[in-house]
Amino acid sequence: MDISKMIAFCVIAAALALILKQYRPEYAMIIVATASCTALLFIIMSVMPAIEEIRQMVLEAGGEALYFSVLFKSLGICYITKFASDLCRDSGQTSMASKIDFAGKAAILILSLPLIESLLDIAIELIG
Fold this sequence. Notes:
The chain is elongated and about 70 Å long. By secondary structure, it is mainly alpha-helical. The chain folds into 2 domains: 1-47; 64-128. The chain has 5 helices and no strands. It has helices spanning 3-23, 25-60, 65-90, 94-111, 113-127.
């Protein structure tokens, strides 16, 4: 990942948004949102090969695919939720940002239900 290009892109977009904010605040928000989405996509594309390699290592080592899947899906939910709530906070929508944070937490809880079930099965086996 060429981090310097991404940082330069984000700094230029932030400076442009700061200049535009004085005259057309609605355009500044669009620039920030577009630059943020572009940076997020760049990061995702850069990280995907590493995630796939880690998944292969876990599977080759005999690790449980369910645990790996839940871990990385939860991580993705956290990043996307943080990204969306930060955009809302930047635009002054703190109430909407709080709802997004709550939705992310609920999604992770729902996603982790198979893990909870698996842990309860193990506990029942140990007790009984």
